[in-house]
Amino acid sequence: MKRRSASMFTVVVGAGLPAAVALAGPLGLPPVPVPADNPMTPQKIALGSKLFNDKRFSSTGEVSCATCHDAGKAFTDSPLQTSEGINKLKGTRNAPTVVNAAYFTTQFWDGRSASLEDQSQHPFVNPIEMGLPNHEPILKIVRTDTEYVASFRQVFAVEPAAITMEHVKKAIATFERTIVAGDSPFDRYYFGGDKAAMSESAVRGFQVFLGDGRCVSCHVIEQDQALFTDNRFHNVGVGINRIQDKVPEIAPKFIEAKAKGLDVDKAVLSNPSTSELGRFAITEELDVLGAFKTPTLRNVEVTAPFMHDGSLKTLRDVVVHYNNGGVTNKGERVNDFLSGGIRELNLSDQQITDLVAFMEALTSPQYAKPATVSALAAGGTP
Amino acid sequence: MSNNYSRRSFLRTAGTVAAVGALPLTLVELAFAKAEDNFTFAYISDSHIQHIRGTKFVNNWDRGLIRAVAETNLISPKPDFVMFGGDLAQLGTKAELDHGAGMLGKLNGKLRCVMGEHDYYLDLGEYWSKLFGPQYYSFDHKGVHFVVLNSILTTDEWTYKRWPTGEQRMLEMAGLDNPNGSPFMVGEKQREWLAKDLAGIAKDTPLVVFSHSPIQKIYKGWNFWTDDAEQVQALLQPFSKVNVVYGHVHQIQYNQIGNISFNSVMATAWPWPYPQSYAQAEQYMPKLTIPMNRADPFFERDATGWQLIDVNTGRVALNYNLYSNRPRTVAFDPKLGHPVDKQFQAEATLQPNQTQY
């Protein structure tokens, strides 16, 4: 069976792919898309990693990217419900994992960034994340710190005074493109042909995933790879349900404020009601009111709690929410803007249990809980 | 003109008008002397609320109407009024009409309704009229004369003599392609009323006529049809700006006959395919034994929608709010003299053909 670890990446120079080169992915994942103007090099990855972990890029000197995207927690801040920035300030959204973020066509829960490069600049200057007034303090450090000076010169052939945020963003994005993980029990079962790789319950759960659960319509699986996302935005009745009576007041007011120059990045992370407008806050299309990006399900087991607002504690809670047709407690009012794909599922208790078991089979070896790893080792699974 | 058309949500577009006053709803040039005479109205249609039993209704159709109402309530500045274009109910029962009226009751602002065949043929519109008032009427708003017709009537023989019960009569008319149905018509009595109603109206007053069936002949087999369409059109032709807006077809259509522009509206319930007459050649498609109720079977709102309409030129411009699809605008083009789909018709913005597999 072919297996590759994230660190042993191979750059595939795409014949007939002038716009981008692709990075071969682990089992179950397609090649990582790499923009033509930001090629992967080992030095750039190392620089990106250093920037990602540098706490000096926050107003208090206590918060780095890694604070909320902790490698030891599958690049999340689990078990926090929503992320904590400087001075323990709480945001409105659950930290999405960086693992496999390289495959998303948009970044952030509401897709307000089109690339990893663009995304990386925003948390620095969000008042409840890293709290810098602007990007100048970062540039000051990377232009004077001797290690950074040497590193930027080597990677970008740029002198200190000429270092810009473009270089910083490119380095961070390059590091993030190496954080990919497949090779889960599901991948070995489905793409690797190892029928013993998943438990019987997970195998049954896979059928629920494809059938009665209707999961696969958004959490997409292809013939030779599975990203578990459609890269689209759906109102699934999370968050919006809490503010639905206020929508007629909030939505037009927000649009008016935005037309007058409101900073959307700051507004959606600091105002819990505005946050729940979801993708609508970005595109202003009624079709996506209360809608958020379909997250990948890879490694979902180790990134609790769940959903964009971290409001559901367990995977079982998530399945029950969908089973209820988009409400967390049966009988609650379904929101008026619910995606047309969400309806009651009438899953049995056994099906719910199996579906959870299936999701637990999506964990990559490097993020598996120690017990799972030792169990695998004891079983001698490759 | 269309090249510059900015695809935006209604709320953004409308909100911008309120906030900045820069971007009109459409780029149709304003014909009215006073800017304050410009107005919009919302149009929701074909919700087909369907009773199952007890307090249970078909969830899919409920969600379509609930969503259209909620979205209409968000539009800013507020539309001057809301039209409901007919077929609120599926089988015309009190339970269905009451349930639908409850959902429509959540609309902010004035509601006016058009009769559809699914509302009518159980009790010949009796309960519907109790809820929504007269079956045909006219009103004036900001210099435009509006007419609402009940266009889904048919012969007395079919209506009163052929069926043992109202329930059976309703079921026979409810099937789209049921050969036991009967062609729709406005009828002599209403045409006489219309002639009188229009007699006092200046010929340069913009007319907007609402009907459930198209007041034009498209496809008789599916009752995309009004049998006395020519006679009704003859009453409308003397006016310089005439717009007929109809439901029933659950798809976007537009046409021009003389001075009359025709525009259809979308359903909130489900889409209909194009009638077979559009194929123009023998088709070898496999016959469907499993009904397809939308283009993307997962997303129940796919291929449905509702519309925001403005009449700033005395001609209607329909802004379609569609789900999982790009919004579309069909507006009268004064240079061409007929309605044009702003996005899909203009040469420069033609969409590449879909790849067929």
**Cα distance, first to last residue of chain B?**
35 Å
**How many distinct helices of chain A?**
17
What portion of residues of chain B is helical? 10-25%
* Most extensive protein-chain contact, per-chain counts: A-B, 25 and 31 residues
Give the second-level CATH assignment, the architecture of the largest domain in chain A. Answer: Orthogonal Bundle
- What's the rounded overall pLDDT mean of chain A? 92
Order of helices and strands of chain A: EEEHHHHHHHHHEHHHHHEHHH
What is the succession of H and E elements of chain B?
A: HEEEHEHEHHEEHHHEHEEEEEEE
Query: What's the shape of chain B?
Result: globular
Percentage of residues in helical conformation of chain A = 25-40%
User: Biggest sheet of chain B: strands side by side, in what order?
Assistant: 5-4-1-12-13-14-15
Q: How many beta strands in the DSSP annotation of chain A? A: 5
Please tell me the total number of domains of chain B: 1
Number of separate strands of chain B? 15
Q: Under CATH, the topology of chain B is which?
A: Purple Acid Phosphatase, chain A, domain 2
Question: In angstroms, what separates the terminal alpha carbons of chain A?
Answer: 8 Å
Q: Provide the number of structural domains of chain A.
A: 2
User: In CATH, what is the homologous superfamily of the largest domain in chain A?
Assistant: Cytochrome c-like domain
CATH architecture of chain B: 4-Layer Sandwich
The main pleated sheet of chain B reads as: 7 strands, mixed
Poorly predicted regions of chain B: 1-33
